[in-house]
Amino acid sequence: MKLSSPRIQLLFAAMLPALPVQATPEENFVNPLVQGQFQAAEIFSESGFEDKVIGKLESVTLDGKSLLKLISEATEVDFPRGARLLVDLGGFKGANKFAPMSGTTAGAVFVVDRDGNVLVNASAYMLFEFDFNALIYSGLVDFLNDKEKTKNQFPATLRLLFPHRDIDILFRGNCFENFRMSEPNDEGIQRVRGVTRFQGSGNGFFDDERFIGTVHCVLRGNELVED
Amino acid sequence: MERRTSFLTGCSLAILAAALMWVPPRESVVNSADSRAKTILARASPGAGQLRARPDSSKGLSAPLLSPHPADSPEHGSWISDRCEALEGLGWMDDEDSLKSILAELKNPEPEIREAALGAVAVFGSKEAIPFLEGFAADTGDPAEKLALRKTAENLKIPTATEYFARKKSERTGGE
Questions:
Q1: Where are the domains of chain A?
Q2: How many inter-chain contacts (A to B, CB under 8 Å) are there?
Q3: Mean pLDDT computed over B112-119
Q4: ipTM score of complex
Q5: Angle, to 10 degrees, between the axis of helix B111-124 and the axis of helix B96-104?
């Protein structure tokens, strides 16, 4: 949904002082990195006058390929070389650009091949939620020329859920996005680019043991949109 | 006596003249020129000089790709974004050539590309990258970049979930 008249756009801008900016391309490739420690062992022993327990932690990384492997196990689908993860905000822009949003925006996660073709919907195992209602931004939103260059910040969550490996972890944190949208060319086409860094921390279970860790994701979107 | 006085006066004048003719280079002028040169170099290739590969640490790696566009042009920015995207895609591959292409970009003069390359190394997840990362970390003068390179190297030493479950399976099989 694009508003054709600049006057109407300016009217909207005047009516909504904290106008939600465009923010975030619809499709973003994701490079995730999860790290943390889980309770590897609790060894109880009786010695002398008192009982003792020795706790042991183990560190583990869930990088993109590990997550791909877990999704492959869960879906029983083998992925080709170069397969990767993609987050789709599914129509967020059209629905919410000029209106207050209700709740958070879920980002469905897909496994795509190296050409971007969807192989599997992995949203049951990885789910992003972005709270664009809480977005703050700096930079320029030019309604007359329909272009934008902003730095956006908004909260987000990521849940990892792989029941077959007893993994269930919820991360909370903030996204920091560099966003650019060019003004439409003669054919009404705009280039939209966004790089979002999501950093969060969280807890849950890994291999059925208590887990505490951090997540760092880079989401990169680059698309052409029609005015 | 007069001759001796004249001779001494002549010598003194000669020494004074020599001292006046020799003007040592002013440090501020040298520093200023040096700093201007550094500024110009930095503008021409941002980040240049911050990350130089040692001959041994860059062994077997090709030279990083450089933007064919002028540094101030919009095309330059687009080229960098496209290059970052391509590198992040390479991170999901699993062949040696892809890893070497990513590692080569850790020497790129563009900081944004170096950052994307480092992210791609993390996604690639190969322990073979560790010596290269440690080598580059030793070479860079940028403390933040040094820390990021070392942290990535350390992270690669931590077992991945895939490795953990494979080890667990192997232990279980071995125990039976």
A1: 6-14+27-42+63-226
A2: 84
A3: 94
A4: 0.83
A5: 150
